[in-house]
Amino acid sequence: MAATILITGATGLVGKALTKHLLHKGYAIHILTTQKTLLGSDKKLQYFYWNPQVNEIDTSCFDGVEAVINLAGSSIAQRWTKSAKTSILNSRIQSLHVLSKAIKEGNFPINQLISASAIGIYSDSKTNYYEEEYVSAEDSSFLRSVVRAWESATTQFQEMGIKTTILRIGIVLDAKDGALPKIMAPIEKYCGAVLASGEQWQSWIHIDDLVALFTHTLELKLEGVYNAVAPNPVQQAELTKSIAQVLKRPVFLPNVPEFALKLLLGEMSAIVLESQRVCSKKIQNTGFKFNYHELSAALKNLLN
Ligand SMILES: NC(=O)c1ccc[n+]([C@@H]2O[C@H](COP(=O)([O-])OP(=O)(O)OC[C@H]3O[C@@H](n4cnc5c(N)ncnc54)[C@H](OP(=O)(O)O)[C@@H]3O)[C@@H](O)[C@H]2O)c1
Predict the structure, then answer these.
(1) Ligand 1 centre from 237 Cα, in Å?
(2) Other C-beta atoms within 10 Å of 118: how many?
(3) Pairing with 186, which of 43, 154, 175, 276 sits 20 to 30 Å away (CA)?
(4) Is residue 180 included in any domain, yes or no?
């Protein structure tokens, strides 16, 4: 009989696709959600309510569960006001804290935690090629401080003897949700333009490969930190032009200057201005096979 997996943040872009895939493989899924309206259940899929901000959790979510997949977190794709920043950080730290506290107090026999993280942990660099062991120097980046704290919060699970896996996710490419539809929108309207110098590296992953990668780390019970990016990152100019090519649209406007992006998006412009060229070797060395190595193949699959 396939195991029961508890997923937090399962109603988001990654979680929806992962839940569908794991259900299809025969797993039973428990979903911890902050949305009260989603409560209800059937044999293979059950919803449970939690509110990590006030330490509230329905601990029956752990019944029969072997592994927890943690995807919960307030979106970083919102203007980084003071309160948004607090929510982006706290939602991630509190979620892990509430989960670990409940597991400890209830003595639930969870054997693995797979927690989402992000390549934003690596410093902005046009030349580095980041492997998991790289430790970035401290800087004033909000994103890096969030991801560092997020990863550190998983040590609570290691201290309980739970196998802990951290997946540093790159830009997830999905046709309907996340970054791709946002990048596509102006290109479709003949207003596409390369962002800033266009030289910044963007390490991407096709949603199907990311779902397969989560499943691979679950089934092989892999421990440690893994980059979850495709083998061939691209620079921003190539990303814009490849999308335009698949959509059969020209890109004739000049590059959007960095200062304009900063004015428009504020501090959050770091999401599109920072450069992280990230290596996928470590997960490939565990036997993981990507279906989408090249951006063009991923885009053709998603957009045609
Ligand atoms: N998509 C990407 O390109 C990307 C890249 C790098 C890292 N990641 C990380 O991977 C994880 C999953 O990504 P995603 O794109 O699927 O995210 P998403 O679509 O924004 O979904 C995240 C989920 O987290 C839950 N959530 C939202 N605010 C919360 C809060 N204040 N407290 C607790 N839970 C909250 C929500 O689920 P409920 O409403 O059911 O509670 C939401 O559906 C996220 O943590 C994200 O930061 C994503």
Answers:
(1) 27
(2) 22
(3) 276
(4) no
pLDDT score, position 139 = 86
Rounded CA gap, 272 and 135, in Å?
Answer: 22
Note down the domain range covering 101.
Answer: 4-172+204-230+277-291
Q: Which candidate, 193, 190, 226, places its Cα nearest to that of 210? A: 226
Q: Is 304 exposed, middle or buried (0-12, 13-18, 19+ CB in 10 A)?
A: exposed
User: Among 74, 73, 75, 78, which residue's Cα sits nearest to residue 266?
Assistant: 78
Asked whether residue 266 is assigned to any structural domain, the reply reads: no
Return the half-sphere exposure (C-beta side, CA atoms, 13 A cut-off) of residue 35. 11
**Which of 7, 8, 13 has the most ligand 1 atoms within 8 A of CB, as the residue to mutate?**
13
CA of 234 to the centre of ligand 1 (A): 24
CA distance 197 to 270: 14
CATH number at residue 104: 3.40.50.720
213 lines ligand 1 (CB under 6 A): no
Q: How many domains would you assign to the chain? A: 1
Q: Is residue 162 part of a domain?
A: yes
57 falls within a domain? yes
Residue ranges of the chain whose pLDDT lies below 70: 1, 40
How much is the pLDDT for 1? Answer: 64
